[in-house]
Design a protein that fits this description.
The longest helix has 17 residues, at 31-47. The chain has 16 helices and 29 strands. The protein folds into three domains: 19-165, 3-Layer(aba) Sandwich (Rossmann fold), CATH 3.40.50.980; 190-415, ANL, N-terminal domain (Rossmann fold, 3-Layer(aba) Sandwich), CATH 3.40.50.12780; 424-515, ANL, C-terminal domain (GMP Synthetase, Chain A, domain 3), CATH 3.30.300.30. By secondary structure, it is of the alpha/beta class. It is globular and about 70 Å long. The protein has an eight-stranded mixed beta sheet. A hairpin with a 2-residue loop joins strand 1 (20-24) and strand 2.
């Protein structure tokens, strides 16, 4: 059998059966338990009629159960579909049919979202599935054959073990959902072989070993957070996720389990650094901090590299490509963290609107080739044709990231094309404003977005979470802003919020706008 995720896991289980593969709070899963339990759950799914290429929706938060059902689906050749457990009626009524999920595995509740009630409302009236397996008491479920408690599923269906499906060439490993609450859902078809190769390559580049322990600040159901963890587990290491981000718990966990690799966003990093008694925590075990999801200011990178003596890896990530380009403090410390280079196993083009390469010092769209570039947007051939280019070298993905092509071969991140704010006659990159204001001592977290304006077209709106709930005015920010960026990039409106809604690090703009 060709080397793949399961053969790697089996080798790790044979070598170190009691080694912890996954830890979430105090719940653990060893490599041997992973092999055993995915075989049993996979058999149960087969007994429910799930076959290769059938879709299995996962509406679960970070949990051991999420991991087991995800990999049990892959073990039998089915395709898991991770879905944000915060999704409501409008979202799930689109996503479940769009992904053609035959069954859904769901938690009863996540945060304030009672998932069971949402599913009761939409199944079967608004969408049809064969089964809903829910982690809830039997007496809470509707009295029909569709809903099944997880306890009953394990008792009645999981009484043997499944075999191991061998992925064929171009087999789709999973479907990743990146849609919001409006519009057509974006569903990514993730290639099994390519995704495996990309995660092994990245883990090798970063020097991960079976002795490493990694803590991820993102969610399992986010393709990036899940993928970063795989870069560790394919090497036989341990990965930790938290059900929800809490800075004190995060620091205590690093100290308790001697974490060697941490993953953060700039926002989460600043929250950690502003934690009372931050210097009292022992972070000496940490060798690498992996940044993704937001612009990384130079000042923030310097704290980790120079003060904490931690190697910083800053990546432009994309769910559509897995690995892309990076800034590595060990090799790129002489340039800004927003100046990225390709890796030995990636390739870069900077293109204009007619898909031709731009000249040096010009700005264009970043186009990436990796083994893991998605094969298609599932069910959306028009978007697939627009974003995926196939030539003799393989598949290339047009990322939507705007970059400047530098003379030394690097690319300088300018912002997301979709986050450009058209303020009067000027174009403003929201990420640039966020990066600047995030360095202001009173700002703990920030999210910048656009709002329609009758005179200037769009105005700049900054949602700000302050340190300790302090007051911050627009005038105060203007003084700090002066001389750092052009005056027209100063936010027109400043809205102070108790918390920037994040999904363990990634700003959730759709929920942010509800706070207005």
């Amino acid at each position: 059998m060709k080397k793949n995720f399961f053969t790697s896991y089996i080798e790790n289980a044979e070598r170190t059966p009691d080694k912890v593969l996954l830890r979430i709070d105090e719940n653990t899963l060893t490599y041997s338990e992973f092999i055993e339990k995915t075989a049993v759950i996979g058999y149960g799914l087969q007994k429910l009629g799930i076959n290769p290429n059938d879709k299995v929706g996962l509406i679960l938060p970070n949990s051991i159960e999420w991991y087991l059902f995800f990999w049990a689906s892959i073990r039998i050749g089915a395709q898991p579909v991770p879905i944000d457990p915060q999704s409501g009626v409008m979202e799930l009524s689109k996503l479940i049919p769009a992904t053609t999920s035959r069954i859904c595995i769901a938690s009863k509740q996540y945060r304030n979202n009672v998932i069971l009630n949402v599913l009761k409302e939409i199944v079967p009236e608004k969408c049809t599935v064969d089964r809903v397996i829910c982690f809830a008491d039997e007496n809470e479920l509707p009295e029909n054959e569709v809903f099944l408690s997880a306890d009953k599923f394990f008792a009645d269906f999981c009484n043997d073990k499944c075999g191991l499906y061998e992925p064929e060439e171009n087999h789709t490993m999973s479907l990743a959902c990146t849609s919001g609450s409006t519009g057509t859902p974006k569903v990514l078809a993730v290639p099994y072989d390519g995704f495996y190769v990309s995660q092994v390559d990245m883990g090798t580049y970063l020097g991960f070993t079976s002795d490493d322990v990694m803590m991820i600040g993102m969610t399992l159901y986010h393709q990036g957070g899940f993928g970063m963890g795989l870069q560790m587990t394919v090497k036989g290491g341990t990965v930790l996720y938290q059900p929800q981000f809490n800075p004190i718990t995060f620091l205590e966990t690093v100290q308790k389990y001697h974490i060697t690799v941490i993953q953060l966003t700039s926002t989460l990093a600043k929250v950690l650094l502003s934690t009372p008694d931050f210097d009292s925590y022992d972070l000496s075990s940490v060798k690498v901090c992996y940044f993704a999801g937001e612009v990384l200011p130079q000042d923030l990178a310097d704290i980790f590299v120079r003060k904490l003596n931690i190697r910083v890896i800053n990546v432009i990530g994309s769910s559509e490509t897995a690995t892309m380009v990076l800034w590595d403090s060990d090799r790129d410390g002489d340039v800004d963290p927003s100046d990225f280079r390709d890796l030995p196993f990636t390739a870069v083009r900077v293109i204009n609107s007619d898909l031709s390469e731009v000249e040096t010092d010009e700005t264009g769209e970043l186009c990436i080739h990796t083994d893991a570039v998605i094969t298609e947007y599932f069910g959306n051939p028009e978007l697939s044709k627009e974003k995926i280019i196939t030539d003799e070298s393989g598949r290339w993905f047009c990322t939507g990231n705007l970059v400047k092509k530098l003379p030394d071969g690097r690319v300088r991140f300018a912002g997301r094309s979709k986050r450009i704010i058209k303020r009067g006659g000027n174009l403003v990159h929201a990420e640039e404003v966020e990066s600047t204001l995030l360095t202001y001592p009173k700002v703990e977290a920030i999210a910048v977005t656009a709002e329609d304006h009758p005179v200037i077209g769009q105005q700049i709106v900054a949602y700000i979470q302050t340190v300790g709930g302090e007051k911050v005015t627009r005038g105060e920010l203007a003084k700090y802003f002066d001389g750092k960026l052009s005056a027209y990039k100063l936010p027109d409106k400043v809205i102070i919020v108790e918390e920037i809604p994040k999904d363990i690090g990634k700003i959730q703009f759709k929920y942010l706008r509800e706070k207005k």
